[in-house]
Every structure is written in structure tokens, then in C-alpha cells.
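Illustration 12: Multisubunit Na+/H+ antiporter subunit MnhE.
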Amino acid sequence: MRKPPKKPTMRWFMLRIWVLVGLTAVWVLLWGNVSAANVLSGLAVGLLITVFLPLPRVPVQGKVHVLSLLNLVIRVNVYLVMSSFQIAWLAIRPGPPPRSAVLRAQLSVKSDLVLALAVNIYNLIPGSIVLEIDQVRRLLYAHVINVGSDKAVKQFYHQVAVVERLLIAAFERDSEWRPASAEELAGDPETEEAPQ
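Figure caption equivalent — predicted structure in C-alpha cell form:
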């Protein structure tokens, strides 16, 4: 015999509202103008998505530190601007094309969520793209442009280490981090049926 599902909490409801608002905003942006028809159709599409294609619960295993997160955002934006100029220079400079390589980087992040954030950050930075992730060993294989010298290779590894350190400071401090429980990994305990 199973217990009936728990009633949705206010937190669950507010999260769904924010997802609906975000999906509606994306819909309006995709259409290019704000009109009543676009907003209403965006709400309808967003409602269909949230009801029929709900996202699974992502277990959060630490706390977010706002100042560290701000530092991470600033540093990543600096890397974005610097790398964009470097890639633009490589495209217009005279001479042979730059040497590229696939480099392996070891990360020490603990949660899959932070690993996914790290991969997304590395993919955003021009000049590198993550080709493969070894989730168990926390290895990234990235294609990197302009690694013709030891200095360039060291610069890539330094950049990876800085981003990793900032991610850990923002999301995975050792004093506050805990592994997700089996219940958190299984699904949303607020709305799921639990076996008796």
C-alpha cells in the first residue's frame, strides 16, 4: 500500500511559477515583439512544457555563496573578453594557422551539478570546447586553440584551475558540502509517492 502524494508546498509552487515566467519570456524573445498574443501563447506553451515535460529534481549539495558567485561571474566575463580578442587576433594575423590540441584536465569538484556548470563555462570561453567528460574520474578532454607553446598550455591549465577554485568557493565549500541523500537522488520527495 502506498501513501498518497504529499501536497505541493509553496516552494514547489513558486519554483514552477518562475519556470513558467522564464519559458514565457523566452517565447516572447523568440518571436521578437511583445504582444498580448505572444505572451498568451508563451504562457500556454510554457504551461504545456511544465505539466507534460517537468524537469527532474536536481539535488543541491551545498550552499550558494553570493560574493564568491559574483567573483566567479566577473572572472568568467574577463576570460570571455580576453579570449574573444585573442581568437579575433588569431583569425586576422598574418602567418600560419595556430596549433590546436586536445588537453586533459582533472577537476576536483564533487557534485554533478557543479561539474556541468564547469563544462558550460569552459565551452563559453572562446578558443576551447569540452569534447568529452569522464564523470566518474572528473576528467575533461577539451579541444584548445593556440597551444603552440608550453606557456599557452600552462595558461589553459591555469584558467581551468582558477574557474574550478571559484566554483568550489561559490558552491562546494568543504565545511558545508554534503552528499545528496538517496531520497534526493531518487526524485522530488515533496510530490512523489513514497513506499510504505
